[in-house]
Amino acid sequence: MMDQQNSGIFGSFGTVDPRLNVSVPSGAGASISPYLNVDPYYLNQGGPQFIVPTGQARARGRFELAFSQIGSSVMAGAVYGALNGVRISTKETRELSGKVRVSQMLNLVTKQGASSANVVGVIALMYSILGLGLSWGRGTEDELNTLGAATATGLLYKSSAGLKTMAKGGAAGLGIATIWCLWQNKDRLKSWNVQSL
Q1: How many Å apart are CA 157 and CA 170, to the nearest integer?
Q2: Closest CA to 104 of 116, 117, 88
Q3: Per the structure, how many domains does the chain have?
Q4: 10-residue stretch averages of pLDDT, the chain, 197 residues long
Q5: Do 106 and 153 sit in the same domain of this protein?
Q6: In this predicted structure, what is the pLDDT of residue 1?
Q7: CA atoms within 13 Å, Cβ hemisphere of 154
Q8: In Å, how far from its chain's centre is CA 79?
Q9: How far apart are CA 77 and CA 75, in angstroms?
Q10: Rounded to the nearest 5°, which phi and psi values hold at 39?
Q11: Taking the model in full, what pTM does it have?
């Protein structure tokens, strides 16, 4: 009886390797590994690479989104601070020249970038924790959690500056969250507006 020959990346081989006495199956795929005794066709069939529990939506939850929101907020704060540092350093170092000016400019850019990244990161962390707490406490994820978390973040962040400033911080958080919610739900609002007419 003659062995069936298969060709792979490293040459051709038979379905039975007489030297190792390991049988190699011939499956649906064109290339069969003689070393793993597996047809690679069955390993990846082009579907999703994650498992979603039955009945669950494929959208990421608030906890998963918190990590990317905090990280992107820190990076955005650092970029804003660095650009602001360039603006400030060009004004403050006009009388300096050479390496001293470059050194002072780099110091100001670094300090401004780190300071802004810290501020924006703390605000994003507070918002994420409060939003996650509201989401778990209420047992649902909707716009009320976003509005409540943003308002509470503004109130808490400015709480040490007095009641008037604290109220301004809460109003700023509520305003930003309202704009965000309206922008996120613009399609739903358009369809609702058309139906009401």
Answers
A1: 9
A2: 88
A3: 2
A4: 51 56 52 62 62 65 83 94 92 86 91 94 93 88 88 92 92 92 81 66
A5: yes
A6: 45
A7: 19
A8: 17
A9: 5
A10: -85, 115
A11: 0.63
In angstroms and rounded to an integer, the radius of gyration of the C-alpha atoms of the chain is 30
The verdict on 126 and 157 lying in the same domain is yes
The one-letter code for the residue type at 82 is A
Q: Enter the tokens of residue 24.
A: 């190699």
Query: Could you write out the three-class secondary structure of 62-112?
Result: HHHHHHHHHHHHHHHHHHHHHHHHHHHHHHHCCCCCHHHHHHHHHHHHHHH
| Full domain range(s) for residue 171 | 62-176
Region at 17 (left for phi over 0; alpha for psi -120 to 50; beta for the rest): beta
**Which pLDDT belongs to residue 66?**
86
Q: Are residues 75 and 168 in the same domain?
A: yes
Location of structure tokens 């650009």: 83
The pLDDT value recorded for residue 17 is 53
Is the torsion defined by CA of 19, 24, 29, 32 positive or negative? negative
